[in-house]
Structure formats: C-alpha cells, structure tokens
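Re: that chain you flagged

S.,

Sorry for the slow reply, it's been a week of failed gels. I finally had a moment to sit down with the sequence you sent. For the record, here it is as I used it:
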Amino acid sequence: MGSITFIEHDGAEHAVEIETGKSLMQIAMNNGVPGIDADCGGEAACGTCHVIVDGDWVAKTGKASDEELQMLDMTPDRAATSRLSCQIIVTDAMDGLVARLPEFQM
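Prediction finished late last night. Pasting the structure tokens below so you have them in one place:
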C-alpha cells in the first residue's frame, strides 16, 4: 500500500497510508493529522482543509472547480498549487504525494 505525506507549517511530517476513493481531507482526519480542521465536513464551503500540493503532484490531483477556486481566493496563505483537500479524491497513482499545510486555516 502507498502513502501520502502531510507536512505541517513547522516542518513536522505525517506519512499516512493511501485510502483509495476517499478524499485527502478524510484521510487526514482519519489519521489525526493536525492542521486540517474540515469545519464544513467536505462540502468545499469553508476552506479549513486547505493544502498546498507539491508541484510534481498537481497534475495527479485533478483540476479545481470554480467553487473551489472561489473558496481558495479567500484563504490568506494561498499558493499557486493550493487545493481544498476535501476536493481531492485519492487514487493509487498518488502514492508519494506531498501536501503541505498552511500556517493558518481560514
């Protein structure tokens, strides 16, 4: 089984097993990764599951919807590769993915 690594703003790393078919947010929550608040439960309505996907993995995570982009526009730490982790459905092809957490969630 593959893994995904979440890196907190302070550099602390959390490697977790891939759970194919679940959102990146669900996997983070299931594994107690700090820094993912997920206040809206995965509806892309709050921005508290913001992650910054390492550049090499952007193509594997799919394209953000207009709704997701509007929510990301309100996040203070937005980067070019920012995504809402609730909108990324994990596949086996994401083995090795690195998602960085911003200093603050919205």
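What I noticed first: The radius of gyration is 12 Å.

Talk soon,
D.
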